């Protein structure tokens, strides 16, 4: 109602760490969804990252439709990273072409998430509004060159 108000979340949902350990082959991504190629067309020469458990869920849901697990498995490639070095800002990098792990943090500082219940004078509960939440996620993914990190 009041768009100029600064909102502060009542509940902090917490911080989730997401390790993106697989890449998706754009050419065969149509096996997973017809939308991937269309939405990721600009990324044709880049990389699309995903998690192992997401890939497993896609494989199990699409296996009945396609019937070829080997074809579905070729859609994903496990990232073989030998480094545990995290990328830092480009200003402090000595060798921009060395591999590293990028970390991108994304926070949603305020979103409606639950109903708020209040008590009336008879101590009865009633719905009186919406609770607000805050949530953060950190995405980690391996890159062959520090210059491919989003800082």
Strand content: 35-45%
Bulk shape: extended
Averaged pLDDT: 82
Strand arrangement in the largest pleated sheet: 1-6-5
Spans where pLDDT lies below 50 across 5 or more residues: none
Distance, first to last CA: 35 Å
Can you put this structure into words, describing what you see?
- With 151 residues, the chain is α+β, with helices and mostly antiparallel strands.
- Helices cover 17% and strands 38% of the residues.
- It is built from three helices and six strands; from the N terminus they run ββαβααβββ.
- The protein has helices at 35-39, 52-66, 69-73, and strands at residues 11-20, 22-24, 48-50, 76-78, 100-119, 125-143.
- Strands 1-6-5 form a three-stranded mixed beta sheet, with no helix packed on it. Strands 3-2-4 form a three-stranded antiparallel beta sheet.
- A hairpin with a 5-residue loop joins strand 5 (100-119) and strand 6 (125-143).
- The longest helix is centred in the middle third of the chain and has 15 residues, at 52-66.
- The chain is extended.
- The model has no long low-confidence stretch (mean pLDDT 82).
Short description:
The protein contains 3 helices and 6 strands, in the order ββαβααβββ.
From the structure above, extract its key features.
3 helices; 151 residues
Strand-helix topology:
Blueprint: E1 11-20, E2 22-24, H1 35-39, E3 48-50, H2 52-66, H3 69-73, E4 76-78, E5 100-119, E6 125-143
Parallel strand pairs: 1-6
Antiparallel strand pairs: 2-3, 2-4, 5-6
């Amino acid at each position: 109602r009041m768009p100029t108000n600064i909102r502060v979340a009542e509940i902090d949902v917490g911080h989730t760490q997401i390790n993106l350990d697989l890449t998706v082959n754009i050419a065969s991504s149509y096996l997973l969804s017809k939308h991937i190629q269309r939405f990721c067309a600009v990324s044709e020469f880049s990389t699309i990252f995903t998690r192992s458990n997401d890939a497993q869920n896609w494989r199990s849901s699409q296996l009945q439709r396609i019937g070829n697990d080997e074809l579905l498995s070729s859609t994903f490639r496990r990232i073989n990273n030998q480094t545990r070095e995290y990328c830092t800002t480009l200003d402090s990098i000595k060798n921009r072409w060395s591999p590293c792990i990028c970390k991108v943090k994304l926070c949603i500082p305020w979103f409606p998430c639950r109903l708020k219940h209040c008590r009336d004078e008879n101590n009865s509960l009633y719905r009186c509004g919406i609770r607000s939440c805050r949530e953060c996620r950190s995405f980690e993914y391996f890159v062959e060159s520090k210059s491919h990190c989003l800082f």
